[in-house]
Amino acid sequence: MRRPLIPVLPALLVPLGLLLTACSGTTSASTSTAGSGGGTDGKGSLTLNVGDQKGGSEAVLRAAGELDNLHYKIRWSTFTSGPPLLEAVNAKAVDIGGVGNTPPVFAAGAHSKIKVVAASHGTAKGDTILVPDDSSLKSPAQLKDKSVAVAQGSSAHYQLVASLRKVGLGLKDVKVKYLQPADALAAFTSGKVDAWAVWDPYTSQVLRGKQGRVLTDGDGLTNGLAFQVASPTALADRKKTAAIKDYLDRLRRAQDWVYKHPEEWAKVWAKDTGLPYEVALDAVKRTNGTRVTVAVDKGAIASEQQIADVFTQLKLIPGKIDFSSFVDPRFNGELPASTTAPRTYGKES
């Protein structure tokens, strides 16, 4: 790297927290069923297999005290990204797991056996296109013929497409470099690419390290949704369905806890992932803590269908898909609409 950045541990090079925005890649998972390494001891003989990511659902549930008094056991499988997590759901190795707004679209395009069962809505201010501080680029329109790093099939991928379309450009008008975050970070800081489409906490890391600035973000442009995705086989099991409902209720309460305790969660998140506390707190206030649990309703389905149609048009998904057929709304209950405004912390730090 040409210039030093805030140190990053390998475990950080994945989407983190309840945001779980991008979720792209192809790596295996680690699993645990007991002890502090990743398992949760509960009561009863039922085990719920949950897909997670470093600093994700298990960390926030534990911090919020929502892993107490379980009437079932949780077996955590920790993935580095969303697509392999959804592959595990498809293979019935995982009963449920959290991902961002784009991986379910690609999984649906692959005709995977998945069902979207829950959603949350947050701001997309952390989904950005970054450029170096000394870049001459001032607007997305100036990205024409420039090189942009992005993780293929990620929410950042769609954010890039949407940002370009807004100014009358397409992917063909830029030099797309499909890179996972570790490689993209190195390429960005060494000047090998002109821009980087990415998500929090990388956005907060780059900004806090004064290594770049925001050219544009996804606020008001992308849907800001994230999802819990379950296996149809698990949903066909009455006892597992009851456990999934309880698990989703606990996640909703934990997300409420994050909003009320941003500094406390940032400390836990930083410790769990190796993020500097200041970066973690920036990401919590900008993105992670803004999320509201919402219904997987017609609005959410239509928004995801739009993403699917865009990638179909780009021939990155083979053929048109009906996203509604990959949704199970049974857990919506009295949850607010998917268009419910995200939370805010006032003026950003």
Describe the structure.
It is built from eleven helices and twelve strands. With 349 residues, it is of the alpha/beta class. The protein has two domains: 10-123 and 223-331, Periplasmic binding protein-like II (D-Maltodextrin-Binding Protein, domain 2, 3-Layer(aba) Sandwich), CATH 3.40.190.10; 128-217, Periplasmic binding protein-like II (D-Maltodextrin-Binding Protein, domain 2). Helix 1 (57-63) links the parallel strand 2 and strand 3. Helix 1 packs across helix 8, helix 6 packs across helix 10 (277-286) and helix 9 packs across helix 10 (277-286). It is globular and about 60 Å long. Mean pLDDT is 86; it is low at 1-29 and 32-38.
Main sheet properties: 7 strands, mixed
- Output the CATH topology of the largest domain: D-Maltodextrin-Binding Protein, domain 2
What is the helix/strand order? EEHEHEHEEEHEHEHEEHHHHEH
Distance between the termini: 27 Å
Going by helix content, strand content and strand pairing, the class is alpha/beta
Which geometry do the CA atoms define?
Answer: globular
Number of helices: 11
User: What's the name of the CATH homologous superfamily of the largest domain?
Assistant: Periplasmic binding protein-like II
The CATH level-2 architecture of the largest domain is identified as: 3-Layer(aba) Sandwich
| Contiguous runs where pLDDT drops below 50 for at least 5 residues | 1-29, 32-38
How many strands in all? 12
Number of discrete domains: 2
**Helicity range:** 25-40%
Average pLDDT: 86
Rg:
19 Å
